Amino acid sequence: MLSTAAFFASAQTTEEYIETYADLAQDLAEEHHIPASIILGVAIHESAAGKSKVARYLNNHFGFKGKNSNTEIRSAYRDFPTVDSAYHHFITFLKSRNHFNTLFDKYDQYDFKAWARGIQRGGYAHSKTWASQVVALIKKYELYQYDNRPADYIEPTDPRPVYQPKKTSKKTYTVKPGDNLSIIAKRNKTSVKALINKNGLKSNALKPGQKLKL
């Protein structure tokens, strides 16, 4: 049977999870200048808001792998004596790894989007959509309200990729006596099939003076 704590963790809602750990996240955020929303967002994502087995049996809310002494489940994830210690370890982990410790100087404690992308780039998770999933959770549950943003804080806009239309080749070739598609293709580093498709040719017959798109 599950312990009372484990049963509560399996039954609690995400809102209840946030209410339980928001103060801890805010204390860590204030001390280490990292968004509280990031701490909560990562914890919710990695622990299914405290409902995953790793969270319930190992107090591991951040997906850290390692040895554990638990006899109730077999897992490749490490255990923690308390959930609070897992939260503190998350900060220690970020500050002790070269891929992550630069984020504390690079980003302010309110820009959760930049932090999420930076943590993903550092290799925290293998999923290419990890950062966007964490950001989606932060927005869904309005976790940014725990960041204590200044009233005049302006959220940085997401960089948008500049649209660059594909360059279309306007290069042409004028057919000379003795030319055929194979010769022209080889000379211009293309293929016979590409010449046929680009020029809508119905046969391989060519006429001197005929212009072909390359």
Compile the SSE list and pairings.
Blueprint: H1 4-11, H2 14-32, H3 36-47, H4 53-58, H5 83-96, H6 98-101, H7 103-106, H8 112-121, H9 130-140, E1 172-174, H10 181-187, H11 192-199, E2 211-213
Antiparallel strand pairs: 1-2
Helix pairs in contact: 2-3, 2-5, 3-9, 8-9, 10-11
- The DSSP helix count reads 11
CATH architectural designation of the largest domain: Orthogonal Bundle
Mean pLDDT: 89
Number of separate domains: 2
CATH topology name of the largest domain: Lysozyme
Radius of gyration: 29 Å
Overall 3D shape: elongated
Largest sheet: 2 strands, antiparallel
Encode the helix/strand succession as letters. HHHHHHHHHEHHE
Indicate the proportion of strand residues. Answer: under 5%
Total strand count, please?
2
CATH class of the largest domain: Mainly Alpha
* Proportion of helical residues: 40-55%
Q: Largest sheet, order of strands side by side?
A: 1-2
Which regions are unreliable across 5 or more consecutive residues at pLDDT < 50? Answer: none
Intertermini distance: 73 Å
